[in-house]
Write a structure and sequence with these properties.
The chain has helices spanning 27-38, 79-104, 116-123, 138-150, 152-161, 205-217, 226-247, 265-275, 291-313; strands at 6-12, 15-21, 46-49, 52-53, 71-75, 129-130, 167-171, 181-184, 189-193, 253-254, 260-261. With 326 residues, the protein is an alpha/beta fold. Among the domains are: 6-75, Phosphatidylinositol 3-kinase Catalytic Subunit, Chain A, domain 1 (Ubiquitin-like (UB roll)); 227-311, no CATH class. It has a five-stranded mixed β-sheet, with helices on one face.
Length: 326
Amino acid sequence: MSTESISLTITYRGVTHPLSLLPDETVAMLQARLEELTSVPPSHQKLLLKGKKLADEKATVRDAGLKDGMKVQLLGPTAEEIGGLKKTEDEQHRRDRILRERASKPQAKVRSTASPSSAASSTYKIHKIEPLPHLPNPESARALLQRLAEDPAIRHVMQKHQFAVGVLTELAPHEHPELLGLNVNAGQAIKLRLRTDRYDGFRNYREVRRVLCHELTHNVHGDHDNNFKELNSKLNKEVAEYETSVSQGTHRLADAWGGIYEPSTGLEAEAHAHVLGGGVASGRVASGDTPEERRRRVLEATMRRLQKEEEELEQSCGTAGPSAMT
């Protein structure tokens, strides 16, 4: 066995870890050392060398192409984070088991004082939000996640399509630089990129919400096939219709939860710009248009923009696979 060690620099979540290994030691030994340093289990470690994954655990450090002075990036959740998702999954399985048992037994009819809309609002929603505590300004991230969870347009489409999300949390830019969103197990958890790449602020709210609509579609369809695109387009349209109907009406709408929804004028102005060919200097739409015609034009312009943005978003979505629901 060679006695001349190889010095490596491992980066994980913005922290560097210097390591020295013998050339004949295996990648599995490297992973064991990294587990001690970062608490990421070897089974969940993803090691990237010049953008390529080190996949063979039995390979030696030398055969894996690791050389003195190289930098390796480590990706993966910690054991504590895995435990949190496992706990959520176990709770979901417990609820499913109880529901199956109830469905198999005759039930006595009980008069309920709760309205159907109240029952739906308590079931089809985002049940929990979790910012990442190890990232800067977790309270600001929590406020953004809370705003998404309580967004009237999002709650509208979730109840309409009977979507439920166990946990809404965030993606760290340095862990998944290529992703904007990820849906875990058809809604068990949805992860969104909230922050800018340099951690000096947060991404535009409407862009993040658009990614959320994309990931909600993965509650039903895993792959980005025609079925996915049809449903995703429908969700985007329903969100746009919801907001356009409000903006073309009183600009204030009491929703089913007792709150008051006041839409931003930014979307309306942007849509008018598309309708008028790139300018809203006059601040007016074509004279003679009825309110319904103005609403239709705003909606059509909005949908054209959303369709173009959705094509770009598919390249930044980490969810793929067979249909999420069978």
